[in-house]
Amino acid sequence: MALIAVISGSVLGVIEVRGQTRQYIITELSSHDATRVPCKINNHGDIVGRADSAFHHSPRATVWNSSNLKAKHLRAFVGADYSSAFDINDEGEIVGGANTGAAMVPFMWNARGDISRIPLLPADSCGQAIAINKHGHVVGYSSGDNGARAILWIRNTATLNLGILPGGTHSLAHDVNDSDEVVGTSGSSGGDRAVLWTKSGNVLDLETLAGDWASEATAINNNGQVVGYSKGPRGMRAFIWSSNGGMQELGILPGGNSSRAMDINDRGEVVGSSISGTGEKAFIWTKQTGIVDLNSPASAAGGFVFIEAQAINFLGQIIVVGRSAHDSMMAAASDARGDEICAPAPPSSFLLTPVLVQ
């Protein structure tokens, strides 16, 4: 029988993982403010994303420090009316994008909180910084009249155009590991493809699962394992790719019809979402257990529904998007006021922290 216990405002849930028992402390990051959107977590448990600012009345790049998980807005460019942080490394350096009023531009905060712009490719006017490794090397995209191009920025050097597959017109970089291996997507003569930009500067087509027509790579770990999803007549299917095993399907949850892998840690644990006619469910995948639903009788009893797992660190801490009991109460209160149109409650965000790291 599943056990629920309240611990300092968080919930301890028991999740059965094919014969194993995983216990997570569930911390709600968004609380009653669904404008809080956490994106990535480093190996210390520091989280970055964006949240509305009461002073500026618009979203601002935000960090949740692992010590207390309280949201703190980061400095913005003068004149910026929007900013979001997308990644943080273990040195505390943060990258993201900010709207300066004229265009969205990539930026970086150092560990002291100083903000600086990351150069775009020549003649380009906008872009975003999506990921950063331990060396402070940053990837993302630069865009202009010639379309979007995946970029790699190495401190004190020029921004590098990572290139495009033959026949393509665009590319986007989504992640970089500590060896400067970069993954993302590139257009090609056959459609969009998941790609790996190698340390030697080559762009490698990771292709698709059998019978599919497109794919996208979302993350890479320091072992060179890549995850993402492949699209085709069966819908989307989450995959893991390695240089010795190629692209392998991760499967779908029972009752599902598609899946997407969003992140992978250095232990080879993959998180994402599996979709069915009744909605999405967050999953975790390991080589030992296969694909497993992060929802459990314990989380359901606590009023939580986990829809999508977005990020995971080495400790197994997971950022998930979902719904909580107070979402339903807010919707019911709105309905009780006689609103003619009752929009669905916005998603909430949670941090799942393993009680025992396995």
Assign the CATH architecture of the domain at 33-161: 7 Propeller
Q: Give the overall pLDDT as a whole number.
A: 86
Q: Which CATH C-level class of the domain at 33-161 is it? A: Mainly Beta
| CATH topology (fold) name of the domain at 33-161 | Methylamine Dehydrogenase, Chain H
Q: How much β-strand is present in the residues?
A: over 45%
Strand order of the largest sheet: 1-2-3-30-29-28
Distance between the termini: 21 Å
Count of individual beta strands: 30
- Judging from the principal axes of the Cα atoms, what is the shape? globular
- Structural category: mainly beta
* SS element count, helices: 2
Query: Which residue ranges are poorly predicted, with pLDDT under 50 across at least 5 consecutive positions?
Result: 1-9, 328-345
Give helix % range.
under 10%
Cα-based radius of gyration, to the nearest Å: 20 Å
Largest sheet: 6 strands, antiparallel
State the fourth-level CATH superfamily of the domain at 33-161. Peptidase/esterase 'gauge' domain
Features:
mainly beta, Methylamine Dehydrogenase, Chain H, disordered N terminus, 2 helices, globular
Give the SSE map.
Blueprint: E1 5-7, E2 10-17, E3 20-28, E4 37-41, E5 47-52, E6 59-64, E7 71-73, E8 82-88, E9 94-99, E10 104-109, E11 115-117, E12 126-132, E13 138-144, E14 147-153, E15 159-161, E16 171-176, E17 182-186, E18 193-197, E19 203-205, E20 214-220, E21 226-232, E22 235-242, E23 246-249, E24 258-264, E25 270-276, E26 279-286, E27 290-293, H1 297-301, E28 305-312, E29 318-323, H2 325-336, E30 348-354
Antiparallel strand pairs: 1-2, 2-3, 3-30, 4-5, 5-6, 6-7, 8-9, 9-10, 10-11, 12-13, 13-14, 14-15, 16-17, 17-18, 18-19, 20-21, 21-22, 22-23, 24-25, 25-26, 26-27, 28-29, 29-30
